[in-house]
Amino acid sequence: MTPSAPAPHVDVATPERVALSLPVAGIGYRCLAWLVDANLLFFFWVALYFVITLLVSDVLGAFQALSGLTQTLLAVGLFATQWMYWTLAEVFFHGQTPGKRVMHIRVVREDGSPVGFFESAVRNLCRAVDFLPVLYATGCITMLLDSRHRRLGDMLAGTVLVREEAIDLDKYTQAPAVDAPAADAGVQRPLNAEDVELVLTFLSRAPGLEPEVRRRLGTRLVDRVGASLTDEERTRVLQSPEATEAFLRTRAKAVH
Amino acid sequence: MATPLPTFVTRRRPDWDALQSLLTRQRAGRLSLAELRTLDTLYRRAAADLAQAQTFYPGTDAHRFLNQLCAQAYGAIYQPPRERWASTRDFFRRDFPATLRREARFVGVSAGLLVLGLLLGALVVTLEPRGAELLVPEGVRRYVAQGRMWTDDLLSVAPPNAVASGIATNNLTVTLFAFASGILLGVGPIFTLVNNGVLIGAVGALCFREGMMTGFLDFIAAHGPVELSIIVIAGGAGLMVGQALIDPGELPRAQALQARGREAVKLVVGCAPFLAGIGFVEGFISPGHLFPTWAKVGLGLSLGVLFWFYLLRAGRTDAGVARVDVPDAMASSRLR
């Protein structure tokens, strides 16, 4: 449940005087997001190429027939698309390119506020350096060395990538399924937040567990949260997984 | 005594869900004024809930959920000012030339480096003809040996698209790299500037030796002045970044880097449209014999003079300065 080492994060002090702490996206998320974006760009050009081949049979010939101005326009346009894709996406989609959106990561300034045009431009112009010598080698080494997984462009722009987790709150609010067999649970002291968390996580996972694992984990949790049970009650609670889980649910829900 | 976690979540959850759906709609950009007020209220409540979760339920999923929710709402409420056409216009009218004049030192050093490279390249090839074998790319040497300009065939040899786009994007790459490599302690821009200077100098000197100076001038005259200026400006921006790393002054290095980076990128972004424009000149007017040499030289010189006139004069009026100072101070205090 609790991570063994604190994950890297960005601390933000808001004007409302609460401390936010945003989890930082690691190199894995960033690589995957880049792969998605790179593939998108690649397939865009492949698709465009095929559309053009459908319209004109001889692409190279058609290109040659264009005037110098149009050729240069096209070349500059191609180049600009590769470069502006990132900045435009980040500015208009709240710090997310399509790849970042798929991976649920987002570019923010180091103080947690959204990126502006200049920050985004800086970090994306620096791709040229981070890409050196091949395939973001410089950027990857920097990310591995930096405590907040930033590449050189992020350091220059003062930005950082944060992760958005999908957190399910339903496990706290699920109604107890059956009547509690151990009705006297209510008189025991309420659990602390960590125990509630453990129990609820177990309950949400229990239906998918192997029967043996389910029974073993349930027993351990009952021993942890049901210290004041008598031996007879304990046996009764442990006689079936349903009874165990009903007991645990009641314990977690116990309102003082 | 704190309420048990499930009770807390059950009681407060409707507010959180409401805030979340408001945030989703805010991203799509459809919120009425009343809804914005609700968003603000809900954000404050969620912040209070987060404070409570931090104290009583640290490390739980509920805590992490609130953390994330508040971060999203915080991002939505403290947005940077929206970029508009008006601000773009102001940027080119005032901000970009003013930044350039403020950082003229760096641009000067950058120009010096390019000229140094130019002289070096020219000197080496003039004094020692075999130096050209080292400094001038082989393809160019072959053309010169045949007494032809390599640019004559720019648009007619197969595959032409590769060559044309290579030329057009090469300048973009050089410009971008001259800036971005500044983060390598300023070594990158120095290398890029000197290297390109040496290349141009060596090619020029080689053409001079082979009696092709007119051809060389014919090719570079139209776009050279502006293009070299842009590379020099981008190199200056890169040097700014490198200087912030080496000598951050009173600020911590990271902050100095960010502050200088923002200024430096203004120079690069400001150059972008001019770079695109000069790319057309280079692709369309410079090669071939569509235009006589005197026209190209005249165009190149007038474009260069216009460009520098704009850089040195634009936004310099007193009214402009007085108008900028106040909003700038306000903007920066809002950003803090």
Helix and strand topology:
The complex is a heterodimer of chains A (256) and B (336).
Chain A: E1 9-13, E2 19-23, H1 27-55, H2 59-65, H3 68-92, H4 98-103, E3 105-109, H5 117-125, H6 127-130, H7 137-145, H8 152-157, E4 159-163, H9 170-173, H10 193-205, H11 211-225, H12 231-238, H13 241-253
Antiparallel strand pairs in A: 1-2, 3-4
Helix pairs in contact in A: 3-5, 10-11, 10-13, 11-13
Chain B: H1 5-28, H2 33-56, H3 61-77, H4 85-102, H5 104-127, H6 131-135, H7 138-145, H8 160-180, H9 187-209, H10 213-220, H11 224-246, H12 253-284, H13 293-313, H14 318-335
Helix pairs in contact in B: 1-2, 1-3, 2-3, 4-12, 4-13, 5-9, 5-11, 8-9, 8-11, 8-12, 9-10, 9-11, 10-13, 11-12, 11-13
Transmembrane segments (chain B): 106-127, 172-191, 198-222, 228-246, 267-285, 291-311
Keywords (chain B): Membrane, Transmembrane, Transmembrane helix
Protein name (chain B): Stage II sporulation protein M
Describe this protein's structure.
Chain A is built from 13 helices and four strands. Chain A is mainly alpha-helical and 256 residues long. Chain A has a two-stranded antiparallel sheet with strand order 1-2. Chain A has a two-stranded antiparallel sheet with strand order 3-4. In chain A, a hairpin with a 5-residue loop joins strand 1 (9-13) and strand 2. In chain A, helix 3 (68-92) crosses helix 5, helix 10 (193-205) runs antiparallel to helix 13 and helix 11 runs parallel beside helix 13 (241-253). By secondary structure, chain B is mainly alpha-helical. Chain B is 79% helix and 0% strand. In chain B, helix 8 (160-180) packs across helix 9, helix 9 (187-209) runs antiparallel to helix 11 (224-246) and helix 11 runs antiparallel to helix 12. Mean pLDDT of chain B is 78; it is low at 154-165 and 318-336.
Give the topology string of chain A: H per helix, E per strand: EEHHHHEHHHHEHHHHH
Most extensive chain-chain interface: A-B, 71 and 79 residues
Rg of chain B, please? 28 Å
Distance between the termini of chain B: 37 Å
Question: What proportion strand of chain B?
Answer: under 5%
Number of helices of chain A: 13
Mean pLDDT of chain A: 78
Largest sheet of chain A: 2 strands, antiparallel
Separate helix tally of chain B: 14
Keywords (chain B): Membrane, Transmembrane, Transmembrane helix
Protein name (chain B): Stage II sporulation protein M
Organism (chain B): Corallococcus exiguus
Transmembrane segments (chain B): 106-127, 172-191, 198-222, 228-246, 267-285, 291-311
